[in-house]
Amino acid sequence: MKSFYEIEDRPPLGTSFVLALQHMLAAFGAIIAVPLVVGGVLGLPESTMVSIVSAALLVSGIITIVQCLGLGPVGIRMPCVMGTSFTFVAVAIAIGQEHGLSGILGSALGGSLVMIIGSQFMVQVRKLFPPIVSGTVILMIGISLVPVGTDWFAGALPGSAEYGALPHLMIGLLVAVVVITLNRRGSGLFKTGAIVIGMATGYLLSVLMGDVDFAPISEAAFVRIPSLLPVELTFPITGVISMGIVYLVTIMESTGDFLALSEVSHCKLTGKRLSRGILCDGVGSALAAVFGTTPFSSFSQNVGIVAITGVASRFVVAMTGGLLMIAGLFPKLAALIVTVPQPVLGGASIIMFGMIIAAGIKMLSRVDLNERNSVIVAVSITAGLAVTTRPDILSNLPSFFQVSLSSGITTGALVAVLLNQLFIQDAPEPEEMDEPEQIEPVKNQPSFNTELVS
To answer: In the record, which residues are listed under signal peptide (predicted)?
Structure first.
């Protein structure tokens, strides 16, 4: 069995299913969390909440398939999982408290034009991301995800009495040990499927310890088909503008995700390919509004799976899209995945997120870290960590800046781009960013899954 599947490779069907399941398990919780948080704060009826979650899963699956396989000018054609974005939570709640769900969906639909139109300028934007900037952004993505993985590993919200309880840490550690051991010592499917095997081991232990609640499975319906336009859309001007601002932020975050994905999958990211990916983000968010759920973006955590497993096949992740669609149509399957305890997710996540950090370090290691470049990396990472660890630092700024700079990834990326342009006269000759459209995976590069543990 191959140790690294490239973008255009097609693993055997059984192998592809296991590999696709890994991506689904990593993304599932985040996909359903956003509509649950927004709906919970707004006090939406249970039937509406179920509808929003089902629509989120169905549209996630559709847009993941389009992003991986492409549909005309739409889709980056790389192994990218799509899902609801936490970046939109605060603005969605603010709009919903005044205009209800119809205002959220209408604003999301109108604001998506910002991303759709902005995608046409990504050839120019790509030139702002030479390796010194790209490596810094990728590193910031991994660092910003570490608190999320840590909270999952601890099994509860920070401050809770159950946070970091010994049983939670034991389960998370078991999953991490199984994943690392299989990645380093396993072969064939045991190596590439290390994450799903590790999570299955942790889930079984959780069942034996009585930590799994099966009630959601018995309570879920067998079939549910999301409907188009479940509520009448309204388009409040302030809501559309607010959503448009967040879409601008999402363009920056998705660009960082695509850069990280190109690094771990050994595939060159041109401006034209980036444009297709951002366009898919915008079209996906518009489709989500039509189906009655919150806006979409690319998922960072799945980049770590590609790095660990060495499976960069876009056809595998397209199968993940199919699984998400099935989960959206058959709620009992979705409920089964919901029962996976947080420490099980955390044990795998801390490795996945760490691999994204390693990808950023690897890219920066190919850059001459002279005085100029060291300043760019240092200041950008510090700025990104500042708003991540101390978000209150933005509390006295105008709302535009609070929204725009609330993400450490966006802040770090903006600072890196600005500093790189400010000191452009001190930079070496820039690399040629755009190449002919027939982009082939880079051959003969070492697989990340052979470098997990030195």
So the answer is: none
Q: Which amino acid is at 84?
A: T
Token match 């979650």: residue?
53
Place of tokens 């390693």: 358
Nearest to 49 by CA among 57, 41, 39: 39
Cross-strand partners of 74: 71
Residues with pLDDT less than 50, the chain:
1, 431-454
Domain boundaries in the chain? 13-427
Residue-wise burial string across 178-190, b where 16 or more C-beta atoms lie within 10 A, e elsewhere: bbbebbeebeebe
| Distance separating alpha carbons of residues 199 and 190, to the nearest angstrom | 13
**Helix H segments across 235-368?**
237-264, 271-291, 301-309, 314-329, 331-338, 342-365
User: For the residues of 8-73, what is the DSSP string, one character each?
Assistant: T----HHHHHHHHHHHHHHHHHHHHHHHHHHHHHHT--HHHHHHHHHHHHHHHHHHHHHHHH-BTT
Specify the residue for token string 């599932």. 28
Q: Specify whether the CB–CB gap between 307 and 359 falls below 8 A.
A: yes
| Rg, the chain, Cα only | 21
b (16+ CB within 10 A) / e for 318-328: bbbbbbbbebb
What angle is formed at CA 36 by the lines to CA 63 and CA 395, rounded to 5 degrees? 100
pLDDT of residue 184: 87
Identity of the amino acid at 302: N
Report the pLDDT value the prediction gives residue 426, as an integer from 0 to 100.
67
* Cα-based torsion angle of the residue sequence 47, 155, 316, 360 in order, rounded to the nearest 10 degrees: 120
Identify which of 332, 336, 427 has the alpha carbon closest to the alpha carbon of residue 376. Answer: 427
Is the distance from CB of 278 to CB of 112 less than 8 angstroms?
Answer: no
Does the global pTM surpass 0.90? Answer: no
337: its two tokens = 């995945």
The pLDDT value recorded for residue 444 is 41
The three-class DSSP label of residue 105 is helix
User: Would residue 66 be called left, alpha or beta, if left means φ above 0 and alpha means ψ between -120 and 50 degrees?
Assistant: alpha
Q: How far apart are CA 45 and CA 150, in angstroms?
A: 32
Q: What is the pLDDT of residue 406?
A: 81
Q: How much is the pLDDT for 441?
A: 45
Q: How many CB atoms lie within 10 A of CB 138?
A: 31
d(CA 334, CA 82): 17
